[in-house]
Every structure is written in C-alpha cells, then in structure tokens.
Design a protein that fits this description.
54S ribosomal protein L4 mitochondrial; ribosomal protein; ribonucleoprotein; 4 helices
Length: 131
C-alpha cells in the first residue's frame, strides 16, 4: 500500500512541478517523506551562538520536521522488514539529535547569562539605593 502511495505521490509531484514553474511544496502528510530536499548542514555551537532567536527557532523547526521524517522512514523500514544494517539514515538521525542538543545548549547559555545579569542588577540596586 505504501509503495502504491509513493508511486502516486511521485507522479502527482512531477505533474504539479510541470504545471507550475515553481517547485513542489509538500504540505501535511507529504512532509514526512523525503523528496530530495537539501537539509541544513550540521553547525557547531560557535556558529549557533551568533544566530538570532528567530534563526534558531527556524532551525529548530526544520530539525523537528527532519526528525519526524526520519522516524517515519525508520518505522516504514521496520514494517517492511528491512534490517538495521540496510537502514542508511542512522547517521542523519544522530546528526539531527546533536544539532537539536546544540541549539538547546546555546539557548540555555543565553538564559543563564540573562539570569546572571538580572542578579547583578538586583545586587547593585540593593548596594546603592540612591540610583
């Protein structure tokens, strides 16, 4: 059944792409299946520290979609009886998890820095009540 769905989906994708000069933009259920999209590269924490809150949020959302797509593919492989040694997305799953952990670490560093500044302001206000 899933093989038939993929065939129908691929034919629909090609027909839609041929009609509209733009690319096919998957929506809903289709986002859980890979269709040749370029995925974000793995970024070290030093690069993530320079990104804005909005950029980190966008990257987090992309990684959630990637993680869900990989989990769907893993379950599909399990149902189809494909053994672990032939499932090639294990490295991508690890990269996705590492990237998400790095984003969480950067956000935690920012939270801790903010709390430290707030404590220092509070301590300075208590020491110097005239200001």
């Amino acid at each position: 059944m899933l093989g038939r769905f993929r065939t129908v989906f691929a034919n629909t994708q090609r027909a839609f792409a041929a009609r509209s000069n733009g690319g096919f933009k998957p929506r809903g259920f289709e986002e859980f299946f890979e269709n040749g999209q370029a995925l974000p590269k793995e970024q070290p924490q030093t690069e993530l520290r320079n990104k804005s809150w909005e950029d980190l949020h966008k990257l987090w959302y992309i990684l959630i979609k990637e993680r869900n797509m990989l989990a769907s593919q893993k379950e599909e492989a399990k149902r189809a009886g494909i053994t672990y040694q032939f499932f090639s997305n294990t490295a991508r799953i690890i990269k996705c998890k590492k990237s998400m952990a790095r984003i969480k670490t950067v956000l935690n560093e920012r939270r801790l820095a903010y709390e430290q500044v707030q404590r220092e302001r509070k301590n300075n206000a208590q020491k110097d009540p005239s200001s």
